[in-house]
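Per reviewer request, we include the raw input and output of the structure prediction for the construct analysed in the revised manuscript.
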Amino acid sequence: MVQIDRVASTLAARGAWVIPTLATSRAILDTFDHPDGAFALPEAVYFQHPLERAVWAFIIDNLYRPVPAPARVALRDDFERFQRPLTRALHEKGGKLLAGSDTIIPGLVPGFGLHRELAELVRAGSRPTRRSVRPRRGRSSTWASWTAPARSRSASGRT
């Protein structure tokens, strides 16, 4: 835990933006438990094009199914003992978090994946406030920033 606190303090002090992608890790772990579960999610109805379904099937069959059980356990442990606690520590130290997800991952549909990421941030210990979650425009996309209320300021310095 000392290492997590040190890393979180350094990132927060330097003003680094971090995208934890907790929903991505959760989707991968869920696929380990239920390989075909991604196709049964309510939002999967929006992923009906044969090419999209084929990409998910290829990833599941060629990347997830071959992972041996001990490696799956290690990945789950890393998520619970490092990725989530680091995200919580970043939030507690006023770090800057961006909510985003990798929507090529089976089980993550554009738009729905962002909602899943925000829910994972709350599960990790972040507490959203009206001031702390707001859209931020990037070059080609919109991001939701997630910072602790005490440090919740726009680039211009206004809250």
